[in-house]
């Protein structure tokens, strides 16, 4: 098939707030420095639902969403040297070119090579490789578009992995697990004995918990409004769980309770909810003088964070983290190895499995407390 368009099934987001349309589409051949991938498995991340809902300033339609996926290289365009046909790959919404100002800085995992066109839903040459059967172009998403049996990505936006690792599991390393784990061990760099609070116990938050546990944090307190998250939190390594809707006494706030539980506040807190009020609580629950709060959750267009500047003057630090600060092409191999050795939990996040045609049910699963991730088999 190399060089020829492929007809396959995809889930198209035609309009914000509407279910996806599962239909046949055409996927063009990869151009220079592009790779066509047979996506074997993808999960649905909260961010896909966020963009589909219409509140993402970069959301554009019609498009093919999905960014937590893995598959097999089907064909490569001219000049591609980092992957070959048949390679097992994880797709990377945070590219790594190794050459740009960002990559060379060694200060960030953000890469400047394809981010501008990625945010517009097109390939680096400004065009799309997807069309529906009416010939209408369909936009790409986050440089991945994993909700299609075949996708085309920039060669900097994927990484080859050990083919013995099951693609049905390591697809989760394409976002949720890596994001939370990396936020704890890289962005925050949690050390033995540190105290940690995690707001929001989805796949991202629970992955922060497992990262903090791996570093030997002395306290890991999970805050979630859904009691169904308590057992999971404890299973992943939390030492405590607080439901702010139920567990606060008269006159207590979540901030005052956390400060009381930790002799003055936490060394690190993480927002994994995307709620800007929660982000404020997370910052203010930090210990005076040094506590750091890491924002991971994605907030809607128009939302802003606020706190009294005095909170920062007195030493609390606000930080953010994208893809856990992980450089995908350099560091994914280590994460896959950790998973294979049993050191990094991945399978425990897979609460649901569905055929690709049930993708709209997978979006509904996300809203239920019994779901961490639904993996779709394409
Ligand atoms: P999820 O929906 O599975 O989990 C969110 C959790 O937050 C749920 O358990 C929910 O009950 C809880 N929650 C909601 N409101 C709360 C509140 N007010 N207080 C406490 N808990 C509350 O989502 P996820 O897939 O784990 O993603 C979490 C967030 O991280 C989303 O905003 C997502 O868009 C974002 N995200 C960011 C990155 C990044 O690189 N920065 C990567 C992946 C996901
Ligand atoms: N498009 C949104 C921002 C979305 C966002 O912040 N995305 C996270 C990843 S979420 C994965 O589930 C991220 O990595 N951001 C860094 C980047 O370069 O996009 C908006 O507000 O415009
Ligand atoms: Zn995601």
UniProtKB/TrEMBL annotation:
GO biological process, one term: formaldehyde catabolic process
Listed GO MF terms: alcohol dehydrogenase (NAD+) activity; S-(hydroxymethyl)glutathione dehydrogenase (NAD+) activity; S-(hydroxymethyl)glutathione dehydrogenase (NADP+) activity; S-nitrosoglutathione reductase (NADH) activity; zinc ion binding
Known EC number: 1.1.1.284
Cofactor list: Zn(2+)
Catalysed reaction equations from the record: a primary alcohol + NAD(+) = an aldehyde + NADH + H(+); S-(hydroxymethyl)glutathione + NAD(+) = S-formylglutathione + NADH + H(+); S-nitrosoglutathione + NADH + H(+) = S-(hydroxysulfenamide)glutathione + NAD(+); S-(hydroxymethyl)glutathione + NADP(+) = S-formylglutathione + NADPH + H(+)
One of the record's GO cellular component terms: cytosol
SMART domains in alphabetical order: PKS_ER (SM00829)
The UniProt record lists the keyword Zinc: yes
Superkingdom to which the source organism belongs: Eukaryota
Annotated ranges, domain Enoyl reductase (ER): 17-337
UniProt KW Zinc keyword: yes
Keywords: Metal-binding, NAD, Oxidoreductase, Zinc
Subunit structure: Homotetramer.
Family membership noted in the UniProt record: Belongs to the zinc-containing alcohol dehydrogenase family. Class-III subfamily.
Protein's recorded name: S-(hydroxymethyl)glutathione dehydrogenase
Organism whose genome encodes this protein: Kluyveromyces lactis (strain ATCC 8585 / CBS 2359 / DSM 70799 / NBRC 1267 / NRRL Y-1140 / WM37)
């Amino acid at each position: 098939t190399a060089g020829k368009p492929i007809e396959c099934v995809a889930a198209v987001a035609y309009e914000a707030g509407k279910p996806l349309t599962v239909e046949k589409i055409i996927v063009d051949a990869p151009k220079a420095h592009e790779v066509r991938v047979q996506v074997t498995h993808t999960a649905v991340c909260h961010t896909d639902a966020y963009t589909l809902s219409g509140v993402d300033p970069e959301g554009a339609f019609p498009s093919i969403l999905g960014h937590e996926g893995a598959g097999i290289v089907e064909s490569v365009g001219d000049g591609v040297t980092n992957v070959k046909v048949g390679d097992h790959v994880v797709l990377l919404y945070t590219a790594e070119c190794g050459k740009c100002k960002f990559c060379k800085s060694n200060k960030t995992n953000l890469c400047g090579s394809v981010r501008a066109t990625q945010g517009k839903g097109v390939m680096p040459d400004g065009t799309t490789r997807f069309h529906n059967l009416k010939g209408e172009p369909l936009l790409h998403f986050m440089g991945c578009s994993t909700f299609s049996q075949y996708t085309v990505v920039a060669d900097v936006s994927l990484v080859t992995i050990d083919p013995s690792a099951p693609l049905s599991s390591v697809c989760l390393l394409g976002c949720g697990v890596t994001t939370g784990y990396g936020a704890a061990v890289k962005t925050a760099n949690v050390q033995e004995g540190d105290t940690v609070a995690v707001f929001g116990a989805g796949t991202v938050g629970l992955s922060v918990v497992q990262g903090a546990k791996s570093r030997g944090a002395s306290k890991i307190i999970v805050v979630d409004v859904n009691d169904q998250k308590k057992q999971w939190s404890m299973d992943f390594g939390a030492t405590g769980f607080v439901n702010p809707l139920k567990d606060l006494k008269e006159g207590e706030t979540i901030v005052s309770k956390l400060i009381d539980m930790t002799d003055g506040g936490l060394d690190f807190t993480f927002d994994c909810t995307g709620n800007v009020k929660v982000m404020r609580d997370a910052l203010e629950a930090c210990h005076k003088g040094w506590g750091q709060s890491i924002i991971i959750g994605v907030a809607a267009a128009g939302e802003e964070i606020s706190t009294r500047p005095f909170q920062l003057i007195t030493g609390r630090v606000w930080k953010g983290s994208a893809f856990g600060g992980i450089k995908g092409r350099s560091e994914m191999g280590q994460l896959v190895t950790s998973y294979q050795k049993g050191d990094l939990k991945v399978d425990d996040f897979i609460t649901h499995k569905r055929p690709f045609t049930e993708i709209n049910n997978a979006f509904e699963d996300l809203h239920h407390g019994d779901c961490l991730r639904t993996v779709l088999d394409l």
